[in-house]
Amino acid sequence: MLDLGTSFLASVSRDPRALALVDGETRLTYAEWFGVISATVAGLDRLGLKPGDHLVTVLQNRHEAATLHWACQFAGIVITPINWRAKAEEIDFAIENAQARAIAYEPVSAGSLRDSAASQRIPRIAVGTPPGPGETAFTDLAATEGPPATPRADAEAISLMLYTSGTTAKPKGVPRRHRAERAAALAHVAQNLYGRGERTLGVMPLYHTMGVRSLLAMSLIGGTFVCLPRFDVTGALRLIAAERITNLYLVPTLYHDLVHHRDFPETDTTSVRKLGFAGAPMTDGLLARLTDAFRPDLFVNHYGSSEVYTFTINHEAAGKPGSAGRAGLNTMVRVVPLGGDPSRTAAPGEEGEIAVIAKGDEAFEGYWHRPEADAKAFRDGWYFTGDTGFADADGDLYVTGRVDDMIITGGENVSPVEIESRLSLHPAVSEVAVVGLPDERWGRIVAAFIKRSGSTDEAALDAHCRAGGLPSHKLPRRYVFVDEIPKSPVGKLLRRQLVAGEYVPEGTTEPHAEGHEAA
Questions:
Q1: Is 373 a member of any domain?
Q2: pTM exceeds 0.85, yes or no
Q3: Which residues are CB-contacts of 333 (< 8 A; sequence separation ≥ 6)?
């Protein structure tokens, strides 16, 4: 397997004049971008960074962030991107945990950086903003023309380290080797049937595995990565039309916002022929809406993680709603009975924890300095995902939620996903999240949090669920109408906030006062 620096050189050789990167007025071919990347490598040398060092970035999806990513691949530096919304203490944690040797920031993250004690002790790269005392401007870093960059890392070197989002503990570092990153990018091209010269909307953040995959995949096919620094529907629709985007790879929440925006019907989206989603299940209602709106040639449900990029692929997401499909090109998948023998595979229809083979080409090999997390995640050569699911009689996988999200009500295991999918089909439901709330009699009750798009009430929703065949123990015992469903920066439902009572009821401005015990 090639290292990523050599892989990029091959792309430049194949497609030197192809458009590689777009960010506003910045438009670079592969040959031009290689020149900027080479200058950036020379600039990182002047900062004293060496192969194996970590560079933390706190950046949105801008051309400088993409350039730093590739420069690190050539220089053998481990790029360590974190959320541009990170607070000072989160920046401190990343710097100290990764033992970072430098950090790059921009105006949106400048305030947190100023309050970060750890960032003041290492070189700082200012992107899109005047540098402070002792800092280096990115424009200066990349201004001096350097010799053509040559790869200093091999396929076994660490390419980047992503951080998983922490809920009850500190985030875990996920170091990934060049060979695993390239294998994942190749699989992404093959599994999405990308052709030469594709154009993708680069909106999934480059601190997230989906964003990184889009960036690397485009380089393999002479494709174009069109930067959208942060998601806004108007900007996304404008770029789709103006840049003739050919494929979208987004989380369901962003698709929802696109097709429900007032400008969508008037936007020319005919260039988009391939849709892919990941990061969360997609409701049946949204699948149907997207199919009708785009009429895509391919609609892919990709199920994976930062640790192992691909678990499963469903190439006909709309044809078999809810199914995550079957194992991807570089892996094997099994469902293990909950609390059962790791070597046993659950029977069709039997719910269990989803595990993937640990030696797959796309897989990481363990968390950064977290042996206790490794001991929990790896068993008998399999990586246990923490997700629950089952395989149907055809062998297709269905993801039912997280082990921690499973609602045990009256002794019955209830998955939120099935209930959410049914409720999403109601015409007056815009968004829905289902959680288990504490109850003295039942232990937990099924509660549905609803964002309404029309007139409906509890009785109507209950009748809708019954008509869809939900058994009585899965029917919500409580409905809560809210103006917004809490989500992470990449669009994942934050069920724990709902369980904790952290939401604003519909039609009010004050947060809900009643708290709940943690799930």
A1: no
A2: no
A3: 311, 312, 326, 327, 354, 355, 356, 357, 397
